[in-house]
Amino acid sequence: MDFFERTGKMAIGSRLRVLTETLTRDAASIYGLYGVGIKPKWFPVFYSLTDEQPKSVTAIAKEIGQSHPSVSTIVKEMIKAELIMEVDGKADRRCTLITLTESGKSLSQELIALLRDVERAVEQISSECDNDLWAAIADWEKALGRTSILERVREIKARREHSEVQIVEFQPQYKKAFYELNRKWIELYWELEPHDIEVLENPEKHILDKGGHIFVALYNGFPVGVCALCPMPEESAYDFELAKLAVNNSIQRKGIGRRLCDAVIDKARELGGEMLFLESNTRLKPAIALYRKLGFKELPEYHPAYARGDIQMELTL
Amino acid sequence: MDFFERTGKMAIGSRLRVLTETLTRDAASIYGLYGVGIKPKWFPVFYSLTDEQPKSVTAIAKEIGQSHPSVSTIVKEMIKAELIMEVDGKADRRCTLITLTESGKSLSQELIALLRDVERAVEQISSECDNDLWAAIADWEKALGRTSILERVREIKARREHSEVQIVEFQPQYKKAFYELNRKWIELYWELEPHDIEVLENPEKHILDKGGHIFVALYNGFPVGVCALCPMPEESAYDFELAKLAVNNSIQRKGIGRRLCDAVIDKARELGGEMLFLESNTRLKPAIALYRKLGFKELPEYHPAYARGDIQMELTL
DNA sequence: TCTAATTGCGTAATTAATTACGCAAATTTA
DNA sequence: TAAATTTGCGTAATTAATTACGCAATTAGA
């Protein structure tokens, strides 16, 4: 299949399925060729019983790597075909112990020639191939047993996204981004107020010059998120406030908010802060969830400072 | 799966199916991880359309190696999801040309990162494996494209069975087998007559000493079939008669009858015969079919010589 | 040019697997 | 020892593929 050379490895499942389908169809014909009344899907169950030890449905399922309802159905079919039968195991009355019947045993004798011929055919195919499919499958099973492909992809994605996003300190060229990113989310729920505009237009005056910090998240060099660490008034119980968190909502699920907050918290610690404060609104569910995850605790009483606030939180650094 | 190391290669289909199932399940989760609204089974169809060329259902099916009803169903689902749409091809009104919608195209952009990450994950797995699964699948596809596993097995079986069966000339130790093999099939339909017994008990006198030959088929050294070449009377239009063909019916479908007849015909030619005669009964359908396949033609009129006969045939050597 | 064969593709039925769920038996725990 | 949890396994529903079949459009052939 030339096609799969173009798709890349994402399609390995589909490609395997096509190959499996071909092999299963041929397997059915091969059983016919030898006059063996057995379906391809029966084979693993049948084979697992050829060691003549009675086994339970679940035990067979585990051994052959299929689900137990699948084995249960196959067992029912094979009992009807009189190849296997139930025996009393006495011990555990939940189990139905299964074993080969006499005709099942004689079938396993007949199968010997078939298995040998198939083995030869596969050897013939292998000799025409540079790569050993059988061994490759075993390798993959082992590798996937250690770490699934899903986990691997998850990790690779996280690593890539981490490297795509850079957290830097505020610089004049990000002034517009600081304004716009905040304006956008505020306007989603409320309206910009004169006070907002004053602060957002003059971050140097209101934040940086007072000893605060602003962090900017760059996604491939482009500013997509901001967050500020603002010193609190002397008389306050808190050293700093986490404020003006804003992330471009077209770049979601990359942990940008999290990394901005981390930067703010780290800086607060670096500056010797002991308690960090924030004020938000419970309508901003993802933000509140993030704050909670970072360890912020909700203050029992709310003393409004902003028009938009309805929740205050604190974090012991 | 340790299990499959014990089953031998017959279970390669089952083993692949288990692996495929695992990979497909993970694929679904991976799409979820990237917020891509696509099912694993859609992927081949989707990918085949990313070259931006409108394609018909059958063309896609052929390209991705699946049946057209399968593609037809997937197409219906993907149209509903607004990833693809039908376009007018003008040319052939049987075809429904399919192409990506705008949202389908933008999805294909989003997929780029996903595909790259998966590619990396597969590379990571490959680096842990001694054998290259991807290349091995390609090798197998190529090898099976040349000759299917079914054809290979068929050939191996024929070769093995041929070597298991040996055709030898009569020897005294096969006298009992000559009698018994003939007795058995005759008694299936008729009864042994005194004339039968006389000939079967004294093959030397009635066949060999008159210049005839008897061939014995040995299956793993054990006699399982016989056939005789008997000279015809001087006044007859025929040189020889093929007679006393009998094969143990528990060893079927191995071409033993065929090989006995071949030996008889070869010997008749060797002895300078020009016309070979035989007499049989139409109830013996497999035998008549074999004679026809060997080139025997039915004589238009029947002049009985045996009580059991109802058909006579001849072969020009 | 008309008929027969082929091609495209949709629907229905079938197959082989899976998950979801529930009941009964056994085991663990408090 | 009684209650809660776990285990075994069967049934039902779902999923993703397949073959079978039939209709309409096109192409080949006489």
Descriptive notes:
The first copy, chain A, is an alpha+beta fold. Chain A has two domains: 113 residues, Winged helix-like DNA-binding domain superfamily/Winged helix DNA-binding domain (Arc Repressor Mutant, subunit A, Orthogonal Bundle), CATH 1.10.10.10; 155 residues, 3-Layer(aba) Sandwich (Aminopeptidase). Chain A contains 13 helices and nine strands. In chain A, the strands form two sheets. Chain A has a seven-stranded mixed β-sheet with strand order 3-4-5-6-7-9-8. In chain A, a hairpin with an 8-residue loop joins strand 5 and strand 6. In chain A, helix 3 packs across helix 4. The longest helix of chain A has 27 residues. Chain A is elongated and about 90 Å long. The model of chain A has no long low-confidence stretch (mean pLDDT 90). Chain A binds a DNA duplex (30 and 30 nucleotides) through helix 2 and helix 5.
